[in-house]
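task queued by scheduler; priority normal; single chain, no ligands, no partner chains; default sampling; output format set to structure tokens
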Amino acid sequence: MLSWKIIWNRFLLKDKPLIYTVGDSHCRYAWIKIPFVKTQTIGPMTMYSFGQDSPIVVKDIPKDAIVVFCFGEIDCRCHIYKHPPWPETIDKLASDYLAAVDHNAKIHPNIWLFNVLPPPRKAKVKENLDFPFLGSDEERLSFVKRLNDRLRESKYLFIDVYEKYSDKDGFLIPEKSDEHVHITDSEPLIDYIKTILDQK
């Protein structure tokens, strides 16, 4: 059953612009509980692949909508570790990704970026062996933090709800997840979006 807070926030958001989320599976989960959000999952596409291929993914989205790009968790979970030195790898990853976002922004001007979510502690979640956890918990946490720092420095609005889903050490709170890597609690997202849209 939905909490009163979610129901109330849905009411407050009912006349707000339509939002499309585009990306890997993280563009779906908690987002589908938010009114006037449509999700366009590309599948398990990495930030690296998006940055290299630079596909146009916004051409069929209304121009008055907000487009939220959601990429990077898979890269931090199981790819960056294989490509030291890690700081240089992460900075190049972010640079190529933002160039691909710029490519899409030429067609659709209203683009936001979703933060890479807190990584879970490996011992506390179910692992997908097709996309395994590589590196220690602390190493993966450092990957996520550096990547989010690079995205935060971009010209795009950065949806930063990281602390709403992380414990005191920066890891994903299991109770707000699907017992894997996805968030399921939509309330922090609704609160954040309402605040941003009320400022516009």
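post-processing summary
- The chain is about 40% helix and 10% strand.
- The first strand starts at residue 19 and ends at 23.
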